[in-house]
């Protein structure tokens, strides 16, 4: 109950910010009413990765990178990059030496005379016994001299035998110059192209403070070693049921791989208990999440000219509230570990379908995040999801459930097909999209989505011959946001055109995104031939 009280106290400030944003957005929309129609989809121009080219760095950044490389070179060649591991080994060896001392003390106790031996010693000795003892004492007196002579000889003759032992120890402490992370060698003198890229990630995460960045790198390497991250890609974690929780899907406008995190699936109590029911299950979930992160990094190009970070989309629709303690703890732990051990691998973190309570929860998590991490967070209410995603991701790469055109196993449209176009429909006006079909037997395909919806929509085929009748493909009807993107097709029996009509009855302007393609009989035959050839090639393999 105490947590709920704390959360409720932090809500007002966020609500005020939210209301302010809504007012600003309303003013901006009012100002743009009289602007001409945009020809291309609105993009976020400020969304770009920082350059990893040495020539583009500031002087203080170049200096910091040079210092970090020098420290790393020294640490690797000095074999002291894993300090914690060495301490553990020394503690382990000291414990082993203590255990070895115990048997020695036990042996000394066993050397004490028994009662029978003591009685025999107490008995009077005969003259013969005295003589025997005298001879034994004489021999014992000679033994130390013999031992000292033998020891001197052994010291001279065995000096050379001890040297190999020292060499063996030196060989055991060999320097590992092949230390790497995410497949990138870390020894700067190797001159690997991706070394600077990786080191810049740690420097940026620590505002180019060399010592802090170096310590962060050491802790990350130690964590990866203890957590066995380098072998995590080959592990079968038996987490097929988590495939809908998070997955990689497509790329954004800058080529960043996009990772979707769907929290709403945990509204299913059965899946929730299966994932977070015990501490062991929570650890499996965390390991699976890091495995997905490593898979995402496999898609990156850790070179100065490459794309070296990804875009995270966090869908909070139907997400369990703050009352789900296990989810809250696991999320907090995952965010912390990802922030500490995967610096600068997320170019932007977009939260969509954000419920009211999340702003309060975010206020609680905020103190555990760096300012740089928080600066990459972006929140979108349900009504602004598609509009927000379009600033970063092309419509062809946005899944249909978020208002885009991407469908699983799409056999109609491919990546090579035309990009989506945009049309603005002002309040109280009507616009049309015309798709020409001059050849008979052409199959026309189209996708269309409306930002904000609440429009009247219809589809019809108008023949080129004025004497022919217009064919209604889709009767006019009012469409809302629940409709989702439209996909339809039409095959003409005479020359003409397909006309898509969008009527905006509201006072606010609407943004229409659409794309289309035409397939004539020759194109269809060519595609069928290519499919057949591909099947034959696969069969021969």
Tell me about this structure:
Keywords: Cell cycle, Cell division, Cytoplasm, Lipid-binding, Membrane, Transport. Its main location: cytoplasm. The structure is a single chain. The chain has three domains: 8-37 and 231-393, Phosphatidylinositol Transfer Protein Sec14p (3-Layer(aba) Sandwich); 47-100 and 166-227, no CATH class; 413-540, GOLD domain (Jelly Rolls, Sandwich). With 541 residues, the protein is an alpha+beta fold. Residues 1-38, 102-112, 122-128, 130-145 and 159-171 have low confidence and may be disordered. It is built from 15 helices and 15 strands. The radius of gyration is 37 Å and the shape is elongated. Helix 2 crosses helix 7 (195-205). The strands form four sheets. A five-stranded mixed beta sheet has the order 3-4-5-6-7. Strand 5 (310-315), helix 11 (325-341) and strand 6 (346-352) form a beta-alpha-beta unit.
């Amino acid at each position: 109950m105490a947590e709920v009280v704390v959360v409720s106290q932090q809500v007002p400030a966020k609500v005020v910010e939210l209301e302010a944003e809504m007012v600003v957005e309303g003013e901006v929309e009012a100002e743009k009413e009289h602007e001409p129609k945009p020809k291309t989809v609105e993009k976020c121009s400020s969304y770009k990765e920082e350059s990893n080219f040495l020539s583009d760095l500031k002087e203080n950044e170049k200096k910091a990178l040079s210092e970090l490389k020098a420290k790393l070179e020294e640490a690797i060649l000095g074999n002291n990059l894993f300090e914690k591991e060495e301490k553990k080994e020394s503690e382990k060896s000291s414990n082993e030496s203590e255990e070895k001392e115990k048997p020695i003390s036990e042996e000394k106790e066993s050397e004490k005379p028994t009662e029978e031996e003591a009685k025999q010693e107490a008995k009077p000795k005969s003259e013969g016994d005295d003589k025997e003892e005298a001879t034994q004492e004489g021999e014992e007196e000679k033994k130390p001299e013999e031992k000292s002579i033998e020891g001197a000889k052994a010291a001279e003759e065995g000096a050379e035998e001890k040297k190999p032992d020292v060499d063996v120890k030196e060989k055991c402490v060999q320097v590992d110059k092949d230390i790497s992370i995410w497949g990138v060698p870390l020894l700067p003198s190797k001159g690997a192209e991706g070394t600077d890229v990786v080191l810049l990630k740690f420097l940026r995460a620590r505002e180019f403070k060399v010592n802090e960045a170096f310590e962060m790198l050491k802790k990350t390497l130690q964590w990866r070693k203890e957590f066995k991250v380098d072998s995590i890609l080959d592990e079968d974690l038996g987490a097929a049921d988590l495939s809908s929780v998070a997955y990689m899907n497509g790329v954004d406008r800058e080529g960043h791989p996009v990772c979707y995190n769907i929290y709403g699936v945990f509204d299913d109590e059965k899946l929730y208990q299966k994932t977070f029911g015990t501490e062991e299950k929570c650890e499996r979930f965390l390991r699976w999440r890091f495995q997905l992160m490593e898979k995402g990094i496999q898609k990156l190009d850790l070179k100065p000219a490459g794309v070296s970070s990804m875009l995270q989309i966090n869908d909070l629709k139907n997400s369990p509230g703050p009352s789900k303690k296990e989810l809250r703890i696991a999320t907090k732990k995952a965010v912390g570990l990802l922030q500490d051990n995967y610096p600068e691998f997320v170019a932007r973190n977009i939260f969509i379908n954000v419920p009211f309570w999340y702003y309060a929860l975010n206020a609680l998590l905020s103190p555990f995040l760096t300012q740089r991490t928080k600066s990459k967070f972006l929140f979108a209410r349900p009504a602004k999801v598609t509009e927000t995603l379009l600033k970063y991701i092309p419509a062809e790469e946005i899944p249909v459930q978020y208002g885009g055109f991407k469908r699983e196993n799409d056999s109609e449209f491919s990546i090579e097909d035309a990009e989506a176009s945009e049309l603005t429909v002002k309040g109280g006006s009507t616009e049309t999209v015309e798709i020409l079909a001059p050849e008979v037997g052409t199959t026309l395909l189209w996708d269309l989505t409306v930002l904000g919806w609440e429009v009247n929509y219809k589809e019809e085929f108008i023949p080129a011959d004025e004497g022919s009748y217009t064919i209604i493909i889709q009767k006019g009807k009012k469409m809302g946001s629940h409709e989702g993107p439209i996909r339809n097709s039409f095959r003409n029996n005479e020359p003409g055109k397909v006309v898509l009509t969008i009527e905006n009855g509201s006072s606010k302007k609407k943004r229409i995104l659409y794309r289309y393609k035409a397939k004539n009989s020759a194109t269809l035959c060519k595609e069928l031939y290519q499919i057949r050839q591909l099947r034959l090639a696969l069969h021969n393999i």
